[in-house]
Amino acid sequence: MWTLGLVFACTMLVVALALVRARQGARLRGLAEKVSAEIEPYLRRKGAEAGITTEVPTWTSRTPEEQIVGYSAMLAMKLLERERHGMVDPVTRDLALAKTASMHELSDAVPTDPIKKPHKP
Global pTM? Predict the structure, then answer.
């Protein structure tokens, strides 16, 4: 009788662990699919603009979730390192940065007191 109860308890524990594992796996798969569909294309485009070349994998339903998310994380790390080191494509840099006059040049032309007008020599 005692062993029958122990076997039943162990069976219930194994079933509960299997259900938790399946639920966790479904959540991980959903996250990986979301990363693959929504985040990875953006990172690939930014990587191509920055000149980062990587092998583009093909995902299947059997691809581990860690591999899908890991690829996007690797792309993001490469982009971040490139940005940290200031390696920006000249075309992108020219589009992103506005060229402005220095504050020293502007300080001579703009009066400090709005009521007074600048002196003209």
Answer: 0.55
